[in-house]
């Protein structure tokens, strides 16, 4: 989850009305993912069963730009022995990775990040849940997508987002899926040039609102008018839940 401009205590409070903030902070840990090894069929198996480095021991502190918090741990929890183990025993999982063609450098690099990495992560979460032996551990998988995401779109960005959404929505992969499709995001000083121009005509969606809606939907699922296990949260839904 992005923690831009959100104080540590406020961010953690969003996880539940009775959460012990100190204990919650102690459970945070960092797992560095080698995306190339995770997505390569030749290395994926060995990589998932390889040992991971234990997380560092320090307090949660903001990054140098005082905007995005560095995800470190306040205590030294026991590190899962392998990469796959780090994906196990989670009730809620969120995928928030994303870039643009310009930032990625090419259409191929953009798709590599926004489809290959995203779907590899989702499949690993599913594999880990299945290997737990208790299929009821994982309750919800949430994914931050984009307004207009459509696998049939002519536009690379929208098509790639839509294909990634379709992948995580397939039957049998997760018991419940929430896909957040915000419009223009308010990134402040991090805003790209085009985003800055558009924001003059359209009110941006605060990143904080997306994060709050995502977490709150974990604990209080948004009513779904259909019998589908997939819920799509659009701009209005996100604003309402985050309010």
UniProtKB/TrEMBL annotation:
<dbReference type="InterPro" id="IPR036291">
    <property type="entry name" value="NAD(P)-bd_dom_sf"/>
</dbReference>
<protein>
    <recommendedName>
        <fullName>NAD(P)-binding domain-containing protein</fullName>
    </recommendedName>
</protein>
<dbReference type="GO" id="GO:0051170">
    <property type="term" value="P:import into nucleus"/>
</dbReference>
<dbReference type="GO" id="GO:0005737">
    <property type="term" value="C:cytoplasm"/>
</dbReference>
């Amino acid at each position: 989850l992005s923690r831009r401009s959100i104080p540590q205590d406020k961010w953690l409070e969003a996880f539940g009305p009775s959460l012990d903030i100190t204990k919650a902070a102690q459970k945070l840990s960092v797992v560095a993912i080698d995306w190339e090894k995770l997505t390569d069929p030749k290395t994926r198996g060995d990589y998932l069963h390889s040992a991971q480095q234990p997380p560092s021991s320090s307090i949660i502190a903001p990054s140098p730009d005082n905007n995005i918090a560095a995800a470190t741990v306040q205590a030294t929890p026991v590190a899962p022995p392998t990469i796959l183990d780090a994906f196990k025993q989670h009730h809620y999982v969120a995928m928030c990775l994303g870039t643009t063609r310009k930032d990625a450098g090419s259409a191929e690099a953009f798709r590599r990040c926004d489809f290959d990495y995203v779907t590899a992560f989702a499949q690993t979460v599913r594999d880990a849940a299945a290997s737990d032996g208790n299929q009821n551990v994982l309750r919800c998988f949430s994914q931050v997508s984009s307004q207009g995401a459509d696998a049939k779109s002519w536009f690379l960005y929208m098509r790639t987002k839509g294909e990634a959404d379709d992948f995580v929505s397939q039957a049998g992969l997760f018991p419940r899926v929430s896909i957040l499709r915000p419009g223009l995001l308010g990134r402040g000083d991090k805003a790209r040039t085009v985003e800055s121009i558009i924001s003059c005509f359209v009110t941006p969606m605060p990143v904080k609102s997306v994060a709050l809606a995502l977490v709150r939907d974990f604990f209080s699922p948004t009513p779904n008018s259909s019998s589908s296990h997939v819920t799509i949260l659009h701009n209005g839904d996100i604003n309402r839940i985050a309010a």
